[in-house]
Amino acid sequence: MSVFKSGAFLQQCFSVHPLTLILKLVTPPSMIGIFCTNCQMKHRLTITWMTASGVEQPGSKDQEMLALQDCSKAHPEEVRLSLVDVVKNAVEFRCYPCSRTYALNLSLVETHQSS
Predict the structure, then answer these.
(1) Alpha carbon 55 to chain centroid, angstroms
(2) CB contact at 8 A, 44 and 27
(3) pLDDT digit string (tens) for 38-72?
(4) Would you say 111 and 41 are in contact if contact means Cβ atoms under 8 Å apart?
(5) For the chain, what is the mean pLDDT?
(6) What span, in angstroms and rounded, lies between the C-alpha atoms of 64 and 37?
(7) What are the beta bridge partners of residue 103?
(8) Which residues are CB-contacts of 79 (< 8 A; sequence separation ≥ 6)?
(9) Per-residue confidence at 14, pLDDT binned at 50, 70, 90?
(10) How many CB atoms lie within 10 A of CB 20?
(11) pTM value?
């Protein structure tokens, strides 16, 4: 299995087939896992900080990660990647049923590609 430490593969997946990127893992305090069903790549994101809008009382990064984790468990098909910006090391998730937006700043993006 090859591992690439770059956001380029995530950016490419998002640009070409954004609807096939599925949020698979939210592990507080700083790990997110995304799977691309089209190219079978796993993208692992390490979070530096995040903010959540649409939350009654914005809190710490840990509280916001828990809110994202709750959304991903309650309605996994409805939490979608809505922005990937490799220049700014940023991604954004949108939870449609909760009307929440989670903006994340990344310290590391790793893409795992099966051989």
Answers:
(1) 18
(2) no
(3) 999 999 999 999 998 876 666 777 889 999 999 99
(4) yes
(5) 92
(6) 26
(7) 51, 92
(8) 23, 68, 71, 72, 93, 94, 95
(9) very high
(10) 14
(11) 0.90
